[in-house]
Amino acid sequence: MKLLSMTVAAVMAASPVMADLVFPSLSYRTGPYAANGIPFADGYEDYFTLLNERDGGIGGVPARVLECETGYNTEKGVECYEATKGEGALVYQPLSTGITYQLIPKATADGIPVHSMGYGRTSAKNGAVFSNIFNYPANYWDGASHAVNHILDVNGGDISGKKIALVYHNSAYGKEPIRTLEELSKKHGYELMLLPVDHPGQEQKSQWLQVRQQRPDYVLMWGWGVMNQVAIQEAANIRYNMENFIGIWWSGSENDVLPAGDGADGYKALTFHNIGSEYPLYDDLQKYVIDAGKAAGAGDQVGTVLYNRGMYAAMLAAEAAKTAQKISGTAEITPAMMRAGMEALEMTEAKMAALGLPNFGPEFSVSCENHGGNGLGAVKQWDASAGAWNLITGYEASDQDVIGPLVEADSAAFAAESGITPGC
Amino acid sequence: MFYREAGDFSTTYSQDSQTFPIKFDRYRYYVVLAIAFGVIPFLINDYWANAVFVPFLIYAIAAIGLNILTGYCGQVSLGTGGFMAVGAYSCYKLMTGFPEISIVIHVILSGGITAAVVTLFGLPSLRIKGFYLAVATLAAQFFLVWLFNKVSWFYNYSASGQISAPERSVFGIIVTGPNTEAWAKYLICLVFVTLCAIIARNLTRGSMGRKWMAIRDMDIAAEIIGVNPMAAKLTAFMVSGFFVGIAGALFFAVYLGAAEVGESFGIDKSFLVLFMIIIGGLGSIFGSFAGAAFMVLLPVFLKNVFVGGLGWPTDLAAHLQFIVSGSLIIMFLIMEPHGLAQLWRLAKEKLRLWPFPH
Prior knowledge:
By secondary structure, chain A is an alpha/beta fold. Chain A is built from 15 helices and 13 strands. Chain A is globular. The termini of chain A are far apart. Chain B is globular and about 70 Å long. By secondary structure, chain B is mostly helical. Chain B has two domains: 32 residues; 308 residues, Orthogonal Bundle (ABC transporter involved in vitamin B12 uptake, BtuC), CATH 1.10.3470. In chain B, 48% of the residues are buried.
């Protein structure tokens, strides 16, 4: 054992410490969630590779992506966090609600920001309590509200007496929207039916049998990894009307709908960024990264929904780093400066167009009180014959009258539990 | 040469029946304790604590617990994950319900609660054996995970079903929560491990342990010579549950800080701890430590070599790590079915004779 620990120490000491901007990527390319983890990790890494190759990094300092495999497992996630934080990690994006919950207290104590983009703890939107946690541009409760709003739109504004089922991953992730959906059911008078699916979600016969028996008018899904594919396949098997089946943004990638073939046609999902690869940035990506043979992973994910999302996450991180460099006046920023940069981040259409991503995401700005952006989201629909997603609505606002007080209450509970005095 | 009984005279009965009868063994044990308590706390950093030492120590307690049940008493259990969850959730409820009471007492009480629950699930063992008992404990595993997911009282009605450990201290030193120093985390686990190992070692050497082993080796024969099978089996479940509960409480409060039952205490935890005692050695306290070290350190070590040392892609490393650990486990089981503890025993036998093997 001694020899073992000495070897580990030697191996760890061998990794060099350079003056660069470190962006750890807690990815998962293995396990039941790999189908969704791989495209995100590829997009995240490729964007930084592009910045390094084309612009020489961010503000002249090269960016280094430190990849660490978590397998969507919280213990490995913690190990990855501890292993990478010493290298000057600027921001963590774990792509897992469970790991985010682990990192919220740890990263706050260490003074490193966490960006849980569209996942994690929803009430982290309240920056007065969650000083180091950001979840812009949208969160789960926004998502729940978008889905209900879409159902309202389809039904001409009246859904009282309708039955809405929520098929969810039985974990912190899947349970997040329940509170909002319950509040919204009081407001709009629909009946909510809860159908938990246990990790990893390979077996959903009983849940879909219940759907078949009780015939909910709409099914919402909070799924991830293999659970998505199975749910969409099961829905197709019982001939559920796909137009009434709406997934959260994590249940709407190509990997989720393709296995069901034509059966998935008409399936809807939410999104907080645009789709496809028709952007000027992709020309640069092709030239500097893909043709140069520097693409991450197998390089076969370019342009998919989750690749775009990984790229979007990297773009927001890079923009926050630029903002931080501007504020602090130095190119080699620290995690504390990065946090300040994220808090002052402002995404405008002009900025995105200049980056080569016009109309890619909604406009939003972050402030100390609001770490969650303005929560805009859109609905997209799968066209199986064309094999493509199409946006069917514009970016719309969520019901802040319901979500605002919930965020307030949940963050106040967290503050009381962990002895934080809220303040900006 | 150095490792032998010669020259080590026992003049009292207690000397004769001590845990380490050979002088060299005894000194080695004191040196290990001295390094663990006196040197490592000064060198440890966050990475070593959170990735290596704290999980190793906590899994060692769980492995000791399971080893008492499976290794010493012969009752196969696949419910370790669920039983650890009982420890974790009782610790959480106690921590949030009685914040003024010391965390040490809460951890011990969680062990007690788990002991009661495990004894309850041990009742079928009086009627069923072997594989059938394994299936019954498997049911306990799924039932407990379902229970902690379903009944929101257990997680204080939080929206996400996550439990998170509030900050608690021992003698003014913070041991749970995000502001814990690495050495404090390590030391509290070490104290619990040391105490648990000493208690377990002495229980298994005493009349209780002999009864367990009699039941394990042949329960009918044991009954004929006067061992009460009900008392022996249920005490094994109880003692095992106590240790597993302590491990679960520490796992949640000190190591993870926030936990979710399906993820942190799922069926794979049960198998992990079972693998630890099989690889370490059934019916051996040292084996529990060796198995825990093997299962915790090997993945971290391989990952550091493959990704940190050789710079391979992380997915390749993760897959290779499965292959290497898997084949090592198979190799061990073929070459030494009695585990690392047996290798250690053989090494000691050889050392006694060395350098004159004949």
